[in-house]
Each structure stands twice: as structure tokens, then as C-alpha cells.
Amino acid sequence: MAGLRQRLLGFFHPRPQARAWALLAPGTLWLLVFFLVPILIMLVYSLMPRGVYGGVRPGFTIEHYARFFNPLYLEILNRTLLWSVAATLICLVMGYPLAYLIARSGQWKNVLMFLVVLPFWTSFLVRTFAMIFLMRDTGLINTLLLRLGVITQPIPMLYTPFAVMTGLVYGFLPFMVLPIYASLEKLDLSLLEAAEVLGARPAARFWKVTFPLSVPGVVAGCLLVFIPSLGSFLTSDLLGGAKQVMIGNLIQNQFSAARNWPFGSAASFIVMALVLVAVLWYLRIRDRAPAGVR
Amino acid sequence: MTDPIVQFTHVSKSFGEVKAVKDISFEVQRGEFFSLLGPSGCGKTTTLRLLAGFEQPDEDGGLVRIAGEVVNRKRPYEREIGMVFQNYAIFPHLSVEKNVAFGLEQHRVPRAEIPERVVKALEMVRLDVGQFARRMPNQLSGGQRQRVALARALVLRPAILLLDEPLGAIDLKLRKEMQLELKQLNKSLEITFVYVTHDQEEALTMSDRIAVMDNARIAQLGSPAEIYENPRTPFVAKFIGESNFFEGTAARGLGDRWEVAGGNATFHVPAQPGLQAGAKVRIAVRPEWMDVCLPETIPAGENAATGTVRDVIYLGEMMHVIVTLADGTDCTVALRNEGQLIKPLPWKRGDRAAVSWLPEDCQVLEEE
Please, is B281 exposed, middle or buried when counting C-beta atoms within 10 Å of its C-beta (0-12, 13-18, 19+)? Predict the structure, then answer.
């Protein structure tokens, strides 16, 4: 055991450069093969004419990108953006107080954080199906309300924007809570005491100290909710039905039923461009924050 | 002529089962430099936090008064205090000037007044305004942060400034400089300083009065000279400066002296009110009040104990001679270094020697 360790150390030690490369190689190779290459393939596909039986044929065209700017697709994009922004804001409004309370709950905070990530133990698909059982006309919520006599007719919930929004918020809330919690948890409490001696009442302490220092967590949380919302298709497919199509469903459909890979690729690139804008916005905010807050 | 700005009356504070502060009473005079000195866990920081308002005394846990008014239930922002924290607690997201302006904004000082007051506060702590005002805290050294923390507290012109070991994290030379500066600010601004430290030298250097805390209580309260030259308990004698301890039994009174029979020697101590024959007596003697001589040449009328020189230590301005006495305890004698190259001490390891001291230099200690 020790001999092997010595040999390994001996191999890496005299060449720090080699050691760095050896450590970087697996990850780099992985990303190269499974991320960069597929993206390049998609880029190429998105610029080639569509084949008769799916796939592509040789040539160059930007028609797939042009086709996207059609009122029908723009409406889907618009809806997707709107819902993603709404889901992000709802997650923020619900997640911030949650993260704040957990960060302030002393010995319980690890238990509470565990509970926040507990849903990840089951598959997202299973959890989304569970929401169908909750929200359909004969589901738990409607049955309960009917039995209690609160309503006489089941409230239509499934296959409405409400269902999609609920699914998105439910699915992505932990991604909002985690980074906000991380930034609040490391907040130096003596800063709040300093603010208090300087005359700041609770509201001022929050808005002048706690919140500004948690902005990097808020922005990270918003991105972690916004980006997957933008690309989500499972939630809208299962909970939204045919009427609540999001851009993710459109893309998925192009690659499966419609067999229009070039158009699906083009739509993907347009979504990626939107994500890029969001990330650049994040980097700008992060770099504006002083180094002590990062 | 007392004008107390802070009064603690039988104040107690517990955290669960732990009594952090037990029934302490003291007053701080207006304009005074008052130090709370003690080892970690002695309750000094809790005492400061009780004064700041971060902690409240227990139910029936006594009264804290500021300027005569009971403030037990008042929040920190309702007390006219400033505070410098141990880690400075500079807001990392605000520039130096915004940090200093924070309190002014919270107190709704007119916008037009703020820049001028910020500049004044920065000048007060000798931070160059042009160079530092717009810097972010992470671009400052420890000493500079400390000055910002001080300016941020002073800009509100508080009646009392609380300082929680503010010099703990900066290097020795700068610390000495800051000690003098703090003392000067205390006198020139006429702000009362309440200073928490575990560094006895720091407390002696700066304070008008010191409360030595031990085990959640005040062991002794007095001027630096009183604390150093007349320690009342073994703890104080040990914690502030160095002391040699002797124990014995009171034998008989001799007018203004008492004769005490100890293990190493029979010695005389100043008469104590209420001292009775047979009582246990414990005394402390400062090393610099003792002398070393040959057992044959003990000066008449002085107390002495004989032993063997264990070590001679060179300290620069002082020399320490450590003598192991008959019962095996070590006694340290501090002698002025008059130049070991010209006039070396005549002692070396293994020499027979006696330590001697005057009866009036015995500090008779109380039981703790």
C-alpha cells in the first residue's frame, strides 16, 4: 500500500505540471467528448438542410433559425420566458425566507437542509407524477375539498398554467434555497451587531447588511432556477398537457415525433443564447460586488 | 466628585446552566478609561455585551444604568454607545466612507452634513481621506481596518465607546502605537472608554481604572498602581505581573507587624485588621521588590528564605535570578541589569543563596 503511494507520489512529484495535467485530464476529456462534440454536431446540423427521412443532407442554410421567428414559435418562447421568470421570482420569494430561517436555526440547520434536498432522493419523473395525483379532478386536493364541502365542483388544476407553475416551483425551489443558504450561513453575525450599535433597526439591518451580502447567493439561485426552467419539458408535458407547450417541449418534439433535427438544433441554440445572456448578467453583478462578498 | 455614566448593580447573566457574570457591581466615571481585564471565559466580554445591549441581565439579575437611566431592556440602537469589535466587523460590501457614514444615515443626519463628518472622523483616526475614503475593506491592512472601525464608532459622538479586544490582531509595534492613540482620543474627545482585554500590560498602560475579572466576578477594581502594587487575591497577584507566593501561620503580633511561621522561613508582614494567631496567611511579593544575597549576609530587619540558584536569565533591561527554596518552590527575583559585560551578577547555577525582601513589600492576600 505504502509502496504504491510512494511510487505514485514519486511519479507526480518532480513534475508539478504533469501532475496538474493528470488531474485535469479525466474531466477535460469527459467534457470534450460528451459536451463539446455534441454541441458542435448540433451547430452543424442547425445550419444544414433537413433530410427527407429525418437527419440532414449536405448544404448550408439559415432557414431553421429564420423559421423560429414565426409568431407561433415566438409565442412559445415568450410564454417560456414569462413562466421561467415567474417561477424564478416565486422561488425567490418563497426560498429566501426559508434559507434565512434555516441559516439562523442553529443546531437544526443541517437537519433542515437535509429535508430541503430530500426530494432529490426520488426521480423527478416520479415526483411529477405524484403531482398529477394531487391535482387532477379526482385527485387528493379536489377530493378533500369536495368531502369537506368547500367546493361542489372539482377545481380544474391539472393541464393549466397553474399546474405547470406549481411543478416548476416545486422542482426548482431547492436550487434557490441552497445558494442563498450558503451565502447567509457564512454571514458574520458581528456585522449585524455592528449595524445595530450604529442605530440600525431590524428592517435596516436586513436591507443594508444581510440582503446586500446575500446577493451573490440570490443571483446564483435565480440562475439555477431560471436556466433549467427555460429548458424544462417534463413538467409542462405532464402537468400542462397539450396547451401549455414550452420551448423545451418544442425542441423535444423536433428531435422525436417531428424528426426535424436541424430545426430542433436551431431552437436549442436560441435557448442557449438566452441562457448566455442570463449568465453574463450574473457575472456582471458578481464582479460589481466587492471581493469580500463573493 | 463622582459622575458615573455606567452603573452595574448586582448584575448577573446566565446562559443556560452557565453563569457568565455573577452579581457584579461597579461604576464607570464620565470620561474615564475603564478596562475589564481577565483571562478568556472570565465574563469580561459578557459584561461588555450587557452594557452594549446585546445581552440582557437575568430576571432579578440586577440593573444596568447608563447616565442614571436603567437600560436593562433597551436595544443597542437605543443606547448612545459606540463599539469597536474584536474582528472590527467592517461591512465588506461598503467602501471606507460608506462604512463610516452608515451610522449617520441610520440616525437620519442631514445628507449635506454627512461627508464633512465622515472626513472629520477619518482624520480623527489619522486615515488619509484622499487615499482611503473610496477603498473597499479588502484593500485595507488590519491596522487600517481597525482605524475605520474606530472612525465608524466615533463619528456618532457616542457618550461611551466600548472596545472588545480591538488590538488583539495587530502586531506589537502598531499595538503600542494604537494604545497611546486610544488613550489620547479618550482624553481629547472626553468620551468614556470601556475596554475589554486579556493583556495585562495593555490594561496597565491605558487605563484610569481596571476591573480584574475572574470566574464571572470582579476580583479587584482599582487604578493600575493599586492593582499591581496591592493585589488583593492570589489570582490578581498571578494574573497581573509576576509574583512569588509564601504561606504560613500567623504566630504573634509585634505592634505594626505580625510574625508568620512559614515552611521556608519565618517572616514579618504588615499587621492586618482582624488577623488572629493561628490563622493561615498567604502573601505575594513582586520579583523586583526582592534581592538576592548570601545566606550569611541577609540585611537586618528583612525577611529572607534560603535556597539554591536554579537559573540566571538574561532579559535585557532586567535579570531574573530563580532560586529554588528549601521546600522545592521556585522564587524569582528581578534585578536591574547594570551591564553583564562590565558588572556581571555574582550568581550562577548551583550557588547557595538567600532571597530577601522588606516586610512592607508583603502583599497579604485574601482568600479567593
Answer: buried
| pLDDT confidence tier of residue A258, bands split at 50, 70 and 90 | confident
What pLDDT is attached to residue A29? 94
First to last CA, chain A: 41
**Helix/strand/coil (H/E/C) assignment for every residue in A68-108:** HCCHHHHHHHHHHHHHHHHHHHHHHHHHHHHHHHHHCCHHH
User: Kindly report the CA angle at B215 between B209 and B220, in degrees rounded to 5?
Assistant: 25
Distance CA B196, CA B21 (A): 14
Residues of A in contact with B83 (CB under 8 A): 193-194, 197
**Residue A34 domain boundaries:** 1-46
Is A108 part of a structural domain of the chain?
yes
| Widest distance between CA atoms in chain A | 79
- Give backbone dihedrals phi and psi of A34, rounded to 5 degrees, phi first: -100, -5
Q: Do residues B286 and B360 lie in contact, with contact meaning Cβ atoms separated by under 8 Å?
A: no
Question: B4-233: which CATH number, 3.30.1360.180, 3.40.50.10490, 3.40.50.300, 2.30.30.100?
Answer: 3.40.50.300
> CB of A103 within 8 A of CB of A185?
yes
**Side chain identity at B273, as an amino acid letter?**
P
Q: How far apart are CA A40 and CA A180, in angstroms?
A: 34
Find the helix packing angle between A16-31 and A2-12, rounded to 10°: 90
pLDDT tens digits for range B250-279: 988 888 889 999 887 889 999 888 888 888
Strands B363-364 and B69-70: unpaired
**Which residues lie across from B112 on neighbouring strands?**
none
Q: Give the whole-angstrom CA distance, residue B287 versus residue B241.
A: 9
Query: Do the Cβ atoms of B137 and B145 come closer than 8 Å?
Result: yes
Indicate the number of domains in chain A.
2
Contacts of B146 (CB under 8 A, 6+ apart): B84, B88, B166, B167, B169, B170, B178
- The CATH number covering residue A96 comes to 1.10.3720.10
User: How far is A63 from B10, CA to CA, in rounded Å?
Assistant: 86
The amino acid at A281: W
- A194 CB neighbours in chain B (<8 A) are 83, 85, 89, 91, 152
- The answer to whether B321 and B362 have CB atoms below 8 angstroms apart is no
Q: Give the position of cell 512559614.
A: B262
Name every chain A residue with its beta carbon within 8 A of the beta carbon of B107.
Answer: 199
- Write down the pTM of the prediction: 0.82
Amino acid at B37: L
Among B151, B167, B162, B164, residue whose Cα is nearest residue B202: B167
- Asked if the structure places residue A69 within a domain, the reply is yes
Say how far apart CA B257 and CA B364 lie, in whole Å: 12
Residue with cell 445558494: A179
Residues A147 and A193 in one domain: yes
What are the residue ranges spanned by the domains of chain B?
A: 4-233, 242-364
Report helix, strand or coil for B160: strand
Q: pLDDT tens digit string along A122-152?
A: 998 999 999 999 999 899 999 999 999 888 8
Distance CA B351, CA B172 (A): 37
Give the nearest chain B residue to A194 (CA atoms): B89
Length of chain B: 368
Q: Are residues A25 and A154 in the same domain?
A: no
Measured between CB atoms, which of B75, B103, B138 is closest to A198? Answer: B103
Is A198 in Cβ contact with B102 (below 8 Å)? yes
C-alpha distance from residue B32 to each of A75, B146, B187, B223, B295 (Å): 73, 22, 8, 11, 48
